[in-house]
Amino acid sequence: MKWFGTGIGRRNDVGTYGCWPYESLPSLSGVANKFAHFKTKADVFDNEAMLPKNSPTACYFSNDEIDSEEFFFDQQGCIVWSLDAATGQVYVAEEDGRTIVSPTLSEFLLRVAVENDCWFVDKRNWGNPENVDESVCRKYLDHYETLFNKTKAYFESRGFRNTEYWIEGLL
């Protein structure tokens, strides 16, 4: 599984979207998931008022293609997220097949909401959306700060210097 997202905190900003191994993402345990009951596309569009908003890349939910599994779109068409109705997994279609991005729709929606909020908390000059739990964002952003510092210490202990710039390219 891989996650497609924006650069937040010390996580590398590699253009509009980067791709990271799912297991490298911060845990969402302990974060209240208001999307826990979302299992299908119908759940998404029957509860639109609950959906994550304030996307830093202007992503949006759309049900225009009713027979399609697609439900979440980047405004420029960079990425389209789809829901596999049989497995409940969220995926991105790529040239060589599907890349699973989340094991469940509810976890996908929660991570999108948290990452959107974290992006705005991290980039204060862009404004601050309402109802953001900054403690959740701090914990999420701290995950990447800790990872950065551990990686930097590892390389510097082996004699490497000026590691900050290229380590940011790794995360």
Detailed description of the structure:
The chain contains four helices and seven strands; from the N terminus they run ββαβββββααα. It has one domain. Helix 2 (105-122) packs across helix 3 (134-157). It is globular. The two termini are 17 Å apart. 32% of the residues lie in helices and 17% in strands. The protein has 171 residues and is of the alpha+beta class. It has helices at residues 41-46, 105-122, 134-157, 164-170, and strands at residues 2-5, 18-21, 60-61, 70-73, 80-83, 90-94, 97-102. Strands 3-4-5-6-7 form a five-stranded antiparallel β-sheet.
Instruction: List unreliable stretches of 5+ residues.
Output: none
> How large is the radius of gyration?
17 Å
Helix content bin: 25-40%
Q: How many helices?
A: 4
Largest sheet: 5 strands, antiparallel
Strand content: 15-25%
List keywords for this structure.
alpha+beta, two-stranded antiparallel ribbon, 5-stranded antiparallel sheet, 171 residues
